[in-house]
Design brief:
mainly alpha; about 65% helix
């Protein structure tokens, strides 16, 4: 499968930033009773309108607010266009205009984290996805659901014959369990993520090449922090890989017995294959029971993760 270009990644995460930024500018314009031309006298008023309404054009404002001071975006003192807007709208800084107040950042950080992780699981390379699913699989219900999903993709309906009735329930609840797994990770690192997000806006206070920057932010900042903070909570290393291996063996032996006739299988008590299969059956059952017990213990100790922390903040502004 071809990898996405950096410029095509994290579209929804970018949209969250663009939407909040344009709303922030619109609300401040209304509060100050400004006209579009007051926001940046040297700019085309249609461009200011596009920014306020989050309309982006590939040539004029691909990343919502054009970068630099060239052409019609130059001011008398060559202040960058984005800084002129922030100053005329009386924000304390360009950073504040981009990310909102720190209190506002705290209100949307969980939702933004959720969207970043969801898109990384689709947009990034296979190695990155594997690391992410390994971290999320510290939440055992997700590890089970992920494994069943993978087996269904690989083996089709035969997987549903091999496993018990819980198989379909995990498949049906996959999205819910994935959200709970993401919430569990975020709860362990929310303070760290808020600091990282603040640094993201502070270190480069503009929207230039936002997609690429979010990809770098995710792989070089967020994921190492996820790894570092995962050990603050109870987790079982490699539970996903262990369960996947067990399930693959279950399917293998199911297929093996289907291919052989009763005579070939050899149910005679003196046939060593009989004892080997009996041993394997008991071992596989014990492995499945072990994973189920881990899931029960984790639920008893931790309870279900609170997914409300990932919700989008309620819009309390009412610009007219």
């Amino acid at each position: 499968m071809a990898h996405k270009k950096s410029s095509d990644k994290y579209q929804k995460s970018c949209e969250i930033i663009y939407d909040m930024l344009s709303s922030r500018i619109k609300e401040r314009k209304i509060q100050l009773k400004l006209r579009n031309k007051d926001i940046c006298p040297s700019a085309d008023v249609n461009l200011i309108s596009a920014i306020i309404h989050n309309r982006r054009n590939e040539k004029k404002n691909k990343y919502l607010i054009p970068n630099g001071v060239k052409g019609t975006y130059i001011s008398e003192n060559t202040t960058p266009f984005i800084d002129v807007i922030a100053k005329n709208l009386k924000f304390n800084s360009t950073v504040e205009m981009l990310r909102g107040s720190y209190e506002e950042l705290e209100s949307y950080a969980g939702h933004f984290f959720f969207q970043l992780v969801k898109e990384a699981l689709v947009d990034e390379d296979e190695e990155t996805k594997e690391i992410l699913t390994s971290i999320l699989s510290d939440y055992i219900p997700y590890a089970i659901a992920f494994t069943y999903n993978k087996l269904l993709d690989k083996h089709g309906q035969i997987a549903s014959f091999v496993f018990n009735e819980n198989f379909l329930s995990y498949i049906d609840e996959y999205d819910i369990l994935e959200t709970q797994a993401i919430a569990r990770v975020y709860i362990n690192m929310n303070d760290e993520f808020e600091s990282l997000l603040d640094e993201f806006f502070t270190n480069q206070p503009d929207t230039l090449k936002l997609n690429r920057r979010l990809s770098t932010f995710m792989t070089e900042k967020v994921m190492p922090t996820m790894e570092k903070t995962r050990h603050k909570a109870a987790c079982i290393d490699d539970v996903k890989q262990r369960f996947l291996s067990t399930c693959e063996k279950s399917i293998y032996y199911f297929n093996y017995e289907l291919m052989l006739s009763p005579e070939a299988i050899g149910y005679h008590e003196n046939d060593t294959s009989y004892y080997e299969r009996e041993y394997m059956d008991e071992w596989l059952k014990a492995e499945h029971d072990y994973i189920s017990r881990l899931e029960s213990v984790q639920k008893e100790i931790e309870g279900p993760p609170n997914t409300d922390i990932l919700n989008a903040p309620r819009d309390t502004s009412n610009p007219s």
